[in-house]
Please model this.
Amino acid sequence: MMKKKIFEKPIITKINAGVPDKFGMQNQIKAITHIDQVAIKDIIAEYGSPVFVISEQTMEETYETALQAFSTRYPKVQFAWSYKTNYLNAVCRKYHQLGSWAEVVSGFEYHKALSNGVEPNKIIFNGPDKSDEDLLLAIENKSLIHIDHFEELYTILKLANTTENKPKVAIRVNMDTGVYPMWDRFGFNYENGDAWNAINRLMLSKKVDFMGLHTHIGTYIMVGWAYGNAAKKLADLAVKIEKKFNHYIKYIDMGGGFASKNTLKGAFLPGTDTCPSFDDYAESITNALIGSDINPEHMPTLFLETGRALIDDAGYLLGSIIGNKRLTSGRASTILDIGVNILFTSFWYDHLLYPAEETSNYTEDTTVYGPLCMNIDVIRESLPFPNMKKGQHVVIKRIGAYNMTQWMQFITHRPAIVMIDKEGKTHLVRKRETNESIVNEELVPDYLQ
Amino acid sequence: MKIKENIAISESGFVFDSNTGDSYHLNTTAQIIMKFMKEDKDEDEIQELIMEEYDVDTDTLNLAYYDFLTMLTQFKLSENE
Ligand SMILES: Cc1ncc(COP(=O)(O)O)c(C=O)c1O
Model:
């Protein structure tokens, strides 16, 4: 019998003269079939769909690139892993193994860092909400407490009377960096004098070890120079402290906020073309510090709390096609088993979506929906995508930041998380939820039993 | 469902709607289906002919076929008999 030809789905496309597609007419989409040599279909067969995947290899490569960018330009550099970005123990421990300290913003995260074996004096405690118990523990542990507001400052001074240990503190400073909107709700403002005022109160109290200055100017900052402006202002404060109190601070902490290479919604060009590199950020920050009036014999350590730019690329979300639907407008749409509840960042980013197996070369402008019975459940409003069949697999790239901490449990279990080690072996690092794991937290009053 | 009289289909897969001035491009499978439709073959016949030539199961072909017809309706290239 004659071998039959391969079937292509019939497609008709309207020719829009004079309105070329944003990326040219050719929209062929390459499949991603493997992550670090592991076949996607094998991962889904073993751990189910959807499933999060973390590449240890990519984590390590990205970390080394970032460290290299800063340590070749500045003598003392220390990364502190931003727990909120992804506080899976396996992820945190990997960064600690690579040399990162911990940056936490709650008692929950603080205890997580302790249980991950971080030495307490290598934990940076940030954020507006630290309870008195949390603060006292952090003081006794000699952790670095970054003060957010005056109430907290006075609480720490009061607590200092109750313990032998001098609190090790820094203040968080916010300032005009030339990038708007300005984040002025965290820390003490530079321009209106609040920051200098807070420093004076702490120094004059003689009850604390004044260790450093901290800022976190925002997130997904797309220009390096904003960091240069921020570093300059912190260096100015350091010089003022030197002059007035003859005191040298140990560190300047520039926070996080470097953009990952994701594309923001509505951006005309992809993030890979527009986002600064680690080298760009490092150049701005280290130039500002080295060029400042800080006494060169007492250069502070440069701390970085980089989150998304370190982990985003290492994260993947795998899923499956549930069905396809032609909308009444004629537009193609496809439904995935991945909802916005587990892909929180789809509210900001046009995430990269790829088939996990070879498909037809023909693509159509497609809307990609999640499985939630809710109108907001849209993964992509529009992207050129091939027609895929029910049960076929897809990959969403660059999702390692925030999704695995900000995800919401809704109408079904949150998926498993798998780490691929450097030898290409997979490890389950978070189990898929079960009915029991969710319902276990519930209680039914006696009268409804 | 049939293709409107004023729709011209070229050998190379271009479709021209003389009423609106719009033009379209077809892939090979779509060309074959449009050609059969122009020849007034009915749905069952067209699907059978495609299955003889192509490696495709009934369900996949059915889904693809009706999706294509929806697009023809959407572009106002077809009319009901
Ligand atoms: C104090 C602080 N440091 C670091 C980070 C990490 O930021 P990013 O993921 O933008 O690098 C955050 C995030 O909000 C933060 O609030």
